Amino acid sequence: MGVLESELERERAVVAGLYQRLDELRSETEERLARVRRDSVGSNHQARSERDAFARLYEDQLTQLRDVDARLVFGRLLLDEPVDGCDHRYIGRVGLRDDDQRSLLVDWRAQQAGAFYQATASEPMGVRARRHLTMSGRQVTRIDDEVFDESLLDGGSAGEQVQGEGALLAALTAQRTGRMHDIVATIQAEQDRIIRSDLRGALVVQGGPGTGKTAVALHRAAYLLYANRQRLSTSGVLVVGPSTAFLRYIEAVLPSLGETGVVLSTLGELFPGVEATAEDAPEAAILKGSAQMARLLSRAVKSRQKAPADEQTIVVDNERLVVAPDLIQRAIAKAQRTGKPHNVARVTFVKHALAELTDQLAAQLRASGSTIDDADLKVLREDLRTSYDVRVLLNTAWLPLTPQKLLQDLYARPAWLAELAPRWTEQQRDALHRDRTEPFTVSDVPLLDEAAELLGDFPGRPDPADRERDRQRKRDLENARAAIRNMGVQGLVSAEQLADGFAEQADRGTTAERAAADRSWTYGHVVVDEAQELSPMQWRVLVRRCPMKSFTIVGDIAQVASASGATSWQDALNPIFKDAWRLEELTVNYRTPAQITREAERIASSAGLPITPTRAVREGDWPIRRVTAERGDAALAAAVAGAVAHDRGIDDGGTLAVITTASDLPEVAAAVEERFGDAAGRGATGLSRPIAVLTGYEAKGLEFDAVVLADPDALAAESPRGAASLYVAMTRPTQRLTLVAR
Ligand SMILES: Nc1ncnc2c1ncn2[C@@H]1O[C@H](COP(=O)(O)OP(=O)(O)OP(=O)(O)O)[C@@H](O)[C@H]1O
């Protein structure tokens, strides 16, 4: 047996031992679960709730132990100095210990695992060699070594461009499934530094296409949850992506890393109760995204606090009362001075108006000979409060409002908009004009949120959550601590986890569920992907969700496709974060072969896009294929279908995207669907099929084994940001690109 085979055998034995430990833990947890379920707990509500919370916790632990089964272990470090008598350390998805609490497997996020990602020949970090283990099921199929200690080398080289080249290339050339996978086994040093960067402040990760920005952002979320468990498990992490299709693409990554306490949301879902998917026309989107909308909404709310122009006559208790506009104006001024949101300050307005009206009515009654004592004053005030006329008077001056109503009014009443924005052009005002019944768009969501902030809670619908939620959480935590002591399971579960179980029990949901449903929830950290697309108004919403401004912001300025997106990180971020943000760049392209990357970057540069050039890790096996459609109707669609068939002839096992302009999409999709039937689908539907037909915008952030691009010139000319769309489209393939010219 050669050295390598015997090493492989040795690793197989070690790994088998680790799986054995995993199985033991699983059966212990299963037993615990069976025991809690079996135990009679009497009829006491508290005891039942505790039992159910423990049961849920053990179920979660079991799911987690099952989720880490695939590629449980993927690395080994050979150490300079033995630790606890052991000169090596295994790295995996979770940490495992034996019964004596000795470490068997180190969680990839633990500090002791750092060298697995960071050590280099010039800075070996106390490591002599690093080994990548490639697994198939529970079996080690291959080992790749990088040796940092020259004395261990027999003639080989210690320097390598990328870490764990074999394992990395295997991962990069693997067929794509339409779902993003974790990269935990092959995270590269420049990525690892970003993943482990401090929780505080805003970190911007800029990088060209395929440099792993999305992957890094998700692994950073998992890392932060691990390293700041106490703080983040109760507040949660919010991950924001551009579309539902994108979220579906990435949703499996965090659970595979053992994390479930994360809320995934599109920008259209950030306002609870509204699920916007429709996009505005570019002009409206730019306007609605601009910061001036915040001022406009503030003026709109103020303009709904207005005294009547003339005296108003009302009748209360058969007494005619002439109310001067000044009286209402004084109450408005008092309420405005509180600085509180509209619906909350209205209470002050009503109180002052009623007080003055009561005095006026009392004076009038006295003048006509009645005697009014304090008790009578109270009755008068109550009569006024419940009088129909008074209600109309006060509501006309200061009506309680919902964000939805405010926005619908603003769009549906051009005259009011003209009053509020006298300097806008007619074209701008027209861009906002809309019928009340039309659904809200993605760009409306930040405006609804801004309005909610200015308006406060709608009366009669006070936020049920806030204070009661905090109190209940405190009670749950105390109970959980007591239960952990009683059960003697200190160290196995945390009070926070168990308290989450109580919360689910009482139908209050997990941290993630409660956070997603609550507009006033503040997260411990926010991850924003494709952040270059965000408008100033969208940034305002996100900062409201995390006032501590702890952010991971990933994107590529050259890929901005939305009309209201950013033109530089400075312009986008300085108004929000001042200069409290730091920039990291990623430069290695892991997705797209060099042959394709070069051409995409050449076209993008000549169109003047501010690209970040990338270094592709592999040259690729297929040069770009160019096809020209014949002349005549439907020729483009036919040529595209032909190009797809050609590509499927090379490999029909992977995923393929046809990317086209929105205007060509119906015809192209029809031709592809006719030829490939159920194997093809449009938009989000296509993403779960081998062939997806997408617009440039829909393809953002995704990747496919092969891409067929229909009429690249039309894609570039489609919108003012068309060049970026073409750049995005050309950088989606992991293997092959076909350009079909018209
Ligand atoms: N260290 C790594 N090991 C293995 N695969 C990696 C690594 N880094 C990135 N990848 C893979 O490269 C591909 C591109 O990554 P990702 O989608 O995160 O890039 P991106 O920078 O967000 O791209 P874009 O800007 O084009 O959306 C993915 O398939 C990802 O899994």
Automatic annotation (TrEMBL):
Compositionally biased intervals (Basic and acidic residues): 463-475
Protein's name according to its UniProt entry: DNA helicase IV
Organism: Leifsonia soli
Record has Nucleotide-binding as a keyword: yes
UniProt-recorded Gene Ontology molecular function terms: 3'-5' DNA helicase activity; ATP binding; DNA binding; hydrolase activity
Stretch list, region Disordered: 455-475
GO-annotated cellular components: cytosol
Residues that, per the record, bind ATP: G207, G208, P209, G210, T211, G212, K213, T214
The entry's keywords: ATP-binding, Coiled coil, Helicase, Hydrolase, Nucleotide-binding
InterPro entries linked: DNA_helicase_UvrD/REP (IPR000212), P-loop_NTPase (IPR027417), UvrD-like_ATP-bd (IPR014016), UvrD-like_helicase_C (IPR027785)
